[in-house]
């Protein structure tokens, strides 16, 4: 019985990922979840009390997987700048992934305070991964710089989602900005990206 419930819960989460990545938060409804999983609508309520509860559990399940992929990319990079670059590149490479698209589609304003706090904590854990690498570059404010790096990543994700430029163009621009920035120096006018 417990195994059956676990499988049903996993099926509901998978359906929620698909709905979020296809149509955003508006698409994530209990009738749609019931239809995708073949469950009665009343049965969906046995697993989740609200849409926010579905989103909260998705974040708890998917964020660690996503973070582990970013961490693995950083682990094989040599040197602090390469680690920061890997952090940016891996997150942007995951933009098309359903798990990532689902997390991006989530509107924090629809969640209760507890769910928003869990999402903030998960993002904080992601940023914490690169504080040490930024510090190793000699940046005077590594924690602040790490937060700003994530801001560039978040903006790049939104830009890729818009589809105006090729994802590779957005990725290279984001990497250039971040690598420049973590060096802790303001480039002189007319200097080339990557110049020291």
Give a brief outline of the structure.
This protein is mainly α and 196 residues long. It has helices at residues 2-23, 30-37, 41-47, 51-75, 80-93, 98-105, 113-136, 142-162, 167-182.
The average pLDDT value, as a whole number, equals 84
- Count every helix, treating DSSP H or I runs of 4 or more residues as helices: 9
Number of strands: 0
What string, H for helix and E for strand, traces the elements in order? HHHHHHHHH
> In percent, how helical is the residue content?
over 70%
Over all CA atoms, what is the radius of gyration? 19 Å
Largest β-sheet summary = none
- Shape by Cα distribution: elongated
Structural class: mainly alpha
**How large is the share of residues in beta strands?**
under 5%
What is the terminal-to-terminal distance? 62 Å
Uncertain spans: none
Keywords, please?
single chain, 196 residues, mainly alpha, 9 helices
Question: Any overview of this molecule?
Answer:
The chain has 196 residues and is mainly alpha-helical. It has nine helices and no strands. It starts with a helix and ends in a 14-residue tail after the last helix. The model has no long low-confidence stretch (mean pLDDT 84).
Ordered list of secondary-structure elements with their pairings:
Elements: H1 2-23, H2 30-37, H3 41-47, H4 51-75, H5 80-93, H6 98-105, H7 113-136, H8 142-162, H9 167-182
Helix pairs in contact: 1-2, 1-6, 2-3, 4-5, 4-6, 4-7, 5-7, 5-9, 7-8, 8-9
């Amino acid at each position: 019985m417990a195994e059956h419930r676990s499988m049903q819960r996993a099926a509901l989460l998978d359906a929620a990922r698909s709905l979020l990545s296809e149509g955003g938060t508006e698409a994530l409804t209990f009738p749609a979840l019931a239809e995708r999983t073949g469950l009665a609508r009343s049965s969906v309520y046995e697993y989740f009390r609200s849409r926010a509860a579905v989103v909260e559990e998705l974040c708890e399940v998917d964020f660690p997987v996503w973070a582990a992929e970013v961490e693995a990319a950083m682990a094989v990079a040599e040197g602090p700048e390469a680690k920061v670059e890997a952090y940016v590149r891996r997150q942007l490479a995951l933009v098309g992934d359903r798990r990532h698209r689902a997390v991006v589609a989530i509107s924090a304003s629809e969640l209760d305070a507890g769910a928003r706090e869990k999402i903030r904590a998960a993002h904080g854990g992601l940023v914490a991964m690169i504080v040490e690498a930024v510090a190793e570059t000699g940046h005077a404010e590594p924690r602040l710089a790490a937060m700003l790096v994530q801001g560039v990543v978040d903006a790049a994700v939104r830009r890729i989602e818009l589809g105006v430029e090729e994802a590779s163009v957005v990725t290279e621009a984001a990497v250039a900005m971040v690598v420049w920035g973590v060096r802790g120096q303001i480039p002189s006018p007319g200097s080339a990206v990557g110049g020291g």
